TrEMBL record:
Protein's name according to its UniProt entry: NIPSNAP domain-containing protein
Native source species: Anopheles melas
Annotated NIPSNAP domain residues: 60-117, 174-271
UniProt similarity note: Belongs to the NipSnap family.
Signal peptide region: none
Length: 273
C-alpha cells in the first residue's frame, strides 16, 4: 500500500470522542463548588507565620503519651503527683490547662496541655528548675517512663483569631481535631479560619486553636468542648446550616494532607473539666 493510501485510510477511521468539560457545561452549583476547591495563590511574605498568625506571648506545650494498657492507673497517679510538684513551685511561669484521656481514637493515650507565660525564655527557665529537682520531679519522670509505650512533645502558638481560652466546669467531653497541612499553606489556613470560627461560637464549643512551632511542623490542633456526643452532633449540624460555613470548609480541605479526631475525657486533676 502506498503512503498516500495509508494516509487516506487513517483519515476515514473513526476517531475517539473527547469531551471537554467547561464551566459553561456545569450546573451553577457544580461550577461554584469547583471554584471553591481552587486554592488561591499564597503570596510570599517577609514576616514569619508565627508573627502573622499569633499575637500572644504564651507558649503551649502539648504532651502526647501512649500508655501501656496495664499501667494506665499507675500512670495517671504518677502524672497527678507531677502536676502537684509543679504547682508547688511558685517561681515557674507555667500552668496546666488540661489533661485528658482519649475515649475514641488512639486508645490508651493521654494528652496534657501546659501554658508558659512569657515565651520560650520561661520554657527554658522551667526546664532548668525542674531538672534540678532530683529528689521528686526527676524520679517521677523516670518512673513514668516504665508506664509508656511512646510519647511526643510539641510546642504550639495560639491562633490570634481564636476566642480567649476559658476553663470549663461541670461534665464535658472534648474533641481535638488535628491536621497536617501542606507546607506553605498555614497563612491560607489562618485566613479562612478567621472567618470560619464565627460559625462555631453559638454553643461556646470553641475551646482552643493552635499551630505547631517545634515538633511536627505544619500541624494544627483545634479543640472543641461539648456536653456529650449528642450535643456534638447537634452543634456540628447547626454549623452546616450557617450560610458561609460550607465555603470555609471547601477552601481549607485542599490544604490538608492528613487529619484525624479524638474524643477526650478530662482527668480528675485537669483544670478544665
Amino acid at each position: 500500500m502506498s503512503l498516500a493510501s495509508l494516509r487516506h485510510a487513517r483519515a476515514v477511521l473513526p476517531q475517539p470522542v473527547r469531551t471537554l468539560v467547561t464551566s459553561s457545561a456545569l450546573s451553577k452549583d457544580e461550577s461554584s463548588w469547583l471554584s471553591k476547591l481552587m486554592v488561591r495563590k499564597i503570596e510570599p511574605t517577609k514576616n514569619s507565620h508565627s508573627r502573622m498568625l499569633s499575637d500572644k506571648f504564651d507558649i503551649y506545650e502539648l504532651h502526647t503519651h501512649n500508655v501501656r494498657p496495664d499501667s494506665v492507673g499507675k500512670y495517671l497517679e504518677n502524672y497527678k503527683n507531677t502536676v502537684q510538684i509543679v504547682q508547688s513551685k511558685g517561681n515557674l511561669s507555667m500552668e496546666l490547662i488540661g489533661s485528658w484521656n482519649v475515649e475514641v481514637g488512639d486508645l490508651d493515650q493521654c494528652l496534657h496541655l501546659w501554658r508558659y507565660t512569657g515565651g520560650f525564655e520561661m520554657v527554658d527557665q522551667a526546664k532548668r528548675e525542674l531538672s534540678s529537682d532530683k529528689v521528686s520531679y526527676v524520679q517521677l519522670m523516670q518512673e513514668r517512663g516504665t508506664f509508656l509505650r511512646s510519647r511526643h512533645l510539641q510546642y504550639l502558638l495560639a491562633f490570634s483569631y481564636w476566642p480567649q481560652l476559658q476553663l470549663r466546669e461541670g461534665k464535658n467531653i472534648y474533641e481535638i481535631r488535628s491536621y497536617r497541612l501542606k507546607p506553605g499553606t498555614m497563612i491560607e489556613w489562618g485566613n479562612n479560619w478567621a472567618r470560619a470560627i464565627n460559625h462555631r461560637q453559638n454553643n461556646n464549643e470553641a475551646f482552643a486553636g493552635y499551630f505547631s512551632q517545634i515538633g511536627r511542623l505544619y500541624n494544627v490542633h483545634h479543640i472543641w468542648c461539648y456536653k456529650d456526643l449528642q450535643g456534638r452532633k447537634e452543634t456540628r449540624e447547626s454549623a452546616w446550616r450557617s450560610p458561609g460555613w460550607d465555603e470555609c470548609v471547601a477552601y481549607t480541605v485542599p490544604l490538608i494532607r492528613e487529619m484525624h479526631c479524638r474524643i477526650l475525657a478530662p482527668t480528675e486533676f485537669s483544670p478544665t473539666q
